[in-house]
Design goal:
The complex is a heterodimer. Chain A is of the alpha/beta class. Chain A contains 13 helices and twelve strands. Helix content of chain A is 35%, strand content 22%. In chain A, strand 1 and strand 2 form a beta hairpin. Chain B has 14 helices and two strands. Chain B has a two-stranded antiparallel ribbon with strand order 1-2. In chain B, a hairpin with a 2-residue loop joins strand 1 and strand 2. The two termini of chain B are 17 Å apart. In chain B, 36% of the residues are buried. Classes of the chains: A alpha/beta, B mainly alpha.
């Protein structure tokens, strides 16, 4: 199966006063049609920047500095602004973190939906309104007909994120970049929103790049997971494999730091130290200063991605040469 | 509706306060009876006059009488002209209103588009140049602009008249200079002089607000929805910019109306400003009192107009004002 989205050797740099900082450092991954890929990592690991780069919405001082992004077999990182605009909202939609600020406060929910559809679809205003009502019903907004006339401020955070989901789905996109779609919401609402997102994707065959730092969301909603660390990809593989037996020490640390109800501990498990910042990059493997298994090689040489079963792991521990020796 | 009534109530209170201040003017600048009677008048004569003028009554009663008369447009007689003040003011009002309306039209008509343009072309040289020039407009004192314009366009080039209103046409009680060639030519220099500062202010404010709005999440989300650039900039960006800008334009109109004194003096414009300057020089209290109330009325009307505009454009106010809404 050819991938719907393929990102190869993506680099994003941020122009600072006297030098260029690397925000995304040579990452590659694919998303298949209808697949939900989770992207996890600490704040500043480059999750959101990756999503923004795919949407073509990087703004100075951040800019693409290498690699290629292909969507449905067509290279999109080199498209001109107008072609990219036609793709955005229609083929690749987005859901952002804060539903309270994602909607124009001066425009009704219905108008914003209709405006988006009229921009991308060959339909009349009346059909667009009918479809807007259907969409609001599908995302589980009560009394959708009345809500079309409502302004965003009259809706709660959860309801607004449902509207944002309706906006994302309104032109039947093939891919949705969902950047922390539940982070700003009430815990009780998070599950509902995630549920709507997952259900609508399965029904419409929409693929999702689900950016989050919530491992619970990952375990619950995704098919595969990419773990990002300091602008690099640490590990990518099937969700189950990563949750149950991760290969990368960083992923293992992440999994161990999820508080468990069954195994009670007095203190929360954490990974000591902090992630290197883009203005102070680390030689070799970016994780080596915090890694419990680091060795001399990790400090000098950057590990490539090794295949471990269905996963790709950027760690010398996963080096097949080494594994055959130890086995 | 409740909202409008509330605002009307507030406006009423403001007018009452202004009336109180004008009323006090009379009491702070000496005893009118002393001014009106000669040295030779006996104490009994003075008391008789005091009673005849109603000055022996309690202060509150006097104030009520003052307000009651003011409501009917009766501010007494001018000390200087010996004519009813209301007539004097009404005669001068059209000149000042025409001057302030035309200069605000110039200021808004140029300032708003230029502000939007400089915000959208932030980096361009021309936009930087426009901003630099606008700073000059803010910094230059109005009287200097007026004198320089007179020097260039009246004295050197002889294109435009340097003083007066030109020919006017009487439309009922309204004398207008807008319908004659010489009236329009006379209007150019004073209105431009009065507009320069306002133009620069509106330009810079619009630019700042527009930049602020274009940074918001809903603009970023609108881009992610693939909307056309024009729709993002104008339907979403400009509309949200207008809310604060209209407030300032309204208040500035009040300022222009109330403080056109300098420009009217420089150009000998036969408006209220000139009347007031002369009234101050001569201690013509009734004229000053009437002027004060008129300016307060003008601000009150403008404020209500601005509020109504907000009511029309911003749905959030409709809710907080207790009017209907989809809550």
């Amino acid at each position: 199966m050819s991938a719907l989205l393929s990102v190869e050797n993506l680099r994003v740099e941020i122009a600072a006063r006297d030098r260029r900082l690397t925000a995304i450092d040579d990452i590659s991954f694919t998303i298949g049609a209808g697949e939900i890929l989770g992207v996890v990592g600490e704040s500043g690991a480059g999750k959101s920047v990756t999503g923004t780069a795919i949407l073509g919405l990087l703004e100075p001082p951040a800019a693409l500095a290498g690699g290629r992004i292909a969507f449905a077999g067509r290279r999109i990182d080199t498209l001109d602004e107008e072609s990219m605009r036609r793709l955005r909202g229609k083929e690749i939609a987005a859901v952002f973190q804060d539903p309270l600020t994602s909607l124009d406060p001066l425009m009704t929910v219905g108008e914003q939906l209709v405006e988006t559809m009229l921009t991308h679809l060959p339909i009349k205003r009346k059909e667009a309104f009918a479809r807007a009502e259907d969409l609001l019903r599908m995302v589980g907004l009560p009394a959708p007909r009345e809500r079309l006339q409502a302004y965003p401020h009259a809706l709660s955070g959860g309801m607004r994120q449902r509207v944002v989901l309706a906006l994302a789905f309104c032109c039947n996109p093939r891919l949705i970049i969902a950047d922390e779609p539940t982070t700003a919401l009430d815990v009780s609402v998070q599950a509902q929103i995630l549920d709507v997102l997952r259900r609508m994707c399965r029904e419409n065959g929409t693929a999702v790049m689900l950016v989050t730092h919530d491992m619970g969301v990952i375990a619950e909603a995704t098919d595969r997971v990419a773990v990002m660390y300091a602008g690099r990809l640490a590990e990518i593989g099937p969700t189950r494999a990563l949750v149950e037996e991760a290969s990368h020490p960083y992923t293992r640390g992440l999994m161990a730091s999820i508080p468990s109800l069954t195994r009670r501990r007095d203190t929360l498990v954490q990974i000591p130290g902090a992630m290197p910042r883009p203005d102070a990059p680390v030689s070799g493997c970016a994780f080596h200063p915090r890694c419990p298994s680091a060795e001399a090689r990790c400090r000098s040489e950057r590990p490539p991605a090794f295949a471990v079963e269905a996963s790709q792991v950027a760690c010398w521990l996963a080096d097949p040469a080494r594994r055959s020796v130890s086995a | 509706m409740i909202f409008v009534l509330g605002r009307l109530g507030q406006a009423f209170l403001v007018l009452l306060a202004a009336a109180l201040v004008s009323f006090c003017l009379f009491r702070f600048v000496g005893d009118p009876v002393n001014n009106m009677t000669g040295q030779a008048a006996s104490l009994a004569e003075r008391e008789a006059m005091r009673a005849a003028l109603g000055l022996a009554d309690p202060v509150v009663l006097q104030f009520v009488r003052f307000v009651g008369k003011a409501v009917h447009g009766d501010f007494g007689m001018s000390y200087r002209f010996g004519q009813p003040v209301a007539g004097l003011v009404l005669e001068r009002l059209p000149a000042t209103l025409e001057l302030s309306v035309v200069s605000m039209l110039i200021a808004t008509g140029l300032g708003l588009p230029l502000g939007v343009w400089t915000a959208l072309h932030r980096g361009s040289r021309l936009a930087q140049a426009v901003l630099a020039v606008s700073l000059v407009g803010i910094a230059l004192p109005t009287f200097l602009i007026g004198i320089v314009l007179i020097l260039v366009f009246s004295v050197r080039l002889g294109w435009l008249p340097s003083f007066g209103r030109g020919d006017t046409i009487q439309l009922g009680p309204w004398s207008t200079g807008l319908l004659t060639g010489s009236g329009l030519r006379s209007l150019v220099l004073p209105s431009v002089t009065l507009a320069v500062f306002q133009l620069a202010l509106i330009l810079r404010l619009t630019r700042a607000e527009m930049l602020e709005v274009m940074r918001t999440d809903f603009i970023r989300f609108a881009r992610a929805r693939g909307l056309h650039r024009g729709a993002i900039q104008y339907r979403h960006g400009l509309r949200n910019t207008l809310v604060p800008v209209v407030t300032i334009v309204g208040l500035q109109f009040g300022n222009v109306f109330a403080f056109s004194i300098i420009v009217e003096t420089v150009f000998q414009w036969p408006g209220l400003g000139l009347l007031v300057i002369q009234a101050i020089q001569f201690g013509d209290i009734p004229v000053l009192a009437a002027y004060l109330v008129l300016v307060a009325l003008c601000f009150a009307v403008i404020n209500i107009a601005v509020d109504l505009f907000h009511l029309a454009i911003d749905p959030r106010i409709r809710i907080s004002g207790g009017a209907r809404g989809a809550a």
